[in-house]
Amino acid sequence: MFVRNLYDCDEIVAGDNCLLRELLHGPKDGLELGYSIAHAIVKPGDTTFNASRVKNPPWLSAL
User: Fold this and answer.
1) Rounded distance, CA 26 to CA 58, Å?
2) Which of 19, 24, 47, 62 has its CA 20 to 30 A from that of 6?
3) What is the pLDDT of residue 57?
4) Cα(37)–Cα(7) distance, rounded to whole angstroms?
5) CB 2: neighbour CB atoms within 10 A?
């Protein structure tokens, strides 16, 4: 069983401005997995979506 405490993981500010803690990353943790698991926090009033950085959002063509 793989056990990790959230608060033992380093916290970074991700490219979309959320606070991110990576709980599980297969290759970094010596596990043969094709995915990772992370915990993200978006502070009240903040957003992780910046429309000015998206040139052609897929949902825009559906409007």
Assistant:
1) 30
2) 47
3) 60
4) 14
5) 9
pLDDT in tens, 38-49: 999 998 988 887
Burial 25-38 (b: 16+ CB within 10 A, else e): eeeeeeeeeeeeee
Give me the residues paired with residue 10 across strands.
none
More confident call, 17 vs 57: 17
Polymer length of the chain = 63
Q: Domain map of the chain by residue range?
A: 1-43
Alpha-carbon gap, residue 37 to 53, rounded angstroms: 25
Read off φ and ψ for residue 28, nearest 5 degrees: -70, -30
